[in-house]
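Researcher: For the annotation table, I need C-alpha cells for Putative prephenate dehydratase. Please keep the output clean. Sequence:
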Amino acid sequence: MSASKIAFLGPRGTFSHQAALLARPDSLLCSLPSFAAVLEALSSRQVDYAVLPIENSTNGAVIPAYDLLKGRDDIQAVGEVLVPAHHCIIGKSLENVQKILSHPQAFGQCSKWISANVPNAEFVSVSSTSQAAALASKDITGTIVAISSELCAVENQFNLLVKNIEDDSNNRTRFLLLRSGGFQDDLSPLKEKSLLQFYLSHPKKLSAVFEVFAAHKVVITNLVVRPSCKFPWTYIYFVECLGMEKHLIDRVGKYCDTFTFMGSYTNQISYF
C-alpha cells in the first residue's frame, strides 16, 4: 500500500510544515502555496490529509482559514495539533531595517520585540513565514529582515539574527488535521472534541442552540463568528465543544438554517 499524502502551507520550514510532521510523520509531504490550494488538493483527493492553522494562543483565530471552511461539507476534522510558535529574525543585519516580511499572523505574535527594536520598519505581508525568509535572504541591501521559524533557517541555511522574539514564550498555534469526505456516522462514539458549523438567519436561534448545549452539559471551547455573505448581519458560527453526543446533532440542527457536523477528534488542550 502506498504511503498517504498530507498537504500543508509551504514552502518547507513553515509552522504548517512542522504541524504536518507532527500529525502524520509517516505521510508524504505536499507543500502548497496557499491555504486555498491546500483545501483544494484535499477536496479533489490529490492528498489524503491536510493541516490548517485555526488559532494562535497569542493572536487569536486565523480568520482566512475559517473563511475557507465556510459552507464546506466535503472535508472532515479528525485531529488537532499544537505547534510551539517560536519566531526568529532572519536576514543580513539589524542595523538599518526598513522592512519586515512575514505572514500576517506573525506580526501580531511579535509586536513587543518589533516595537522595541525596529519600531519604524514597514510590515510586508507574504503568504508564509518561509517565503518571507527566502525573500529576505536574497536582499543585499541589509534593509530587509523576515520573521520566520528556526526550522526554516536551519533547513535552508539562512542567516539567523535573533531567536525567540514572540511576545509569549508559551506561544502556540493550533492546527486542524483534515481529511477528505464529510462526516460518516459509523455508529462509534464521538471523540472528546467536536467541530460544528451552522448558519442562523436570526439571532434568537442562537439562544435555542445554546440551550441545548447547556441542558446536556456540552462545553463550548471555541466560538468563531463570520459574516454569512447571504444577508447583512447574519452569520456562520464555528463551534468547538466537549461532550457532544450523536443524538444531539439533530437536536441542534433543527434550529439552524444550515448545519454541518465537521468531525470529532481527541482534545489536546488542558482547559481545567
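Researcher: And a one-line annotation?
Model: The chain has a mean pLDDT of 93.
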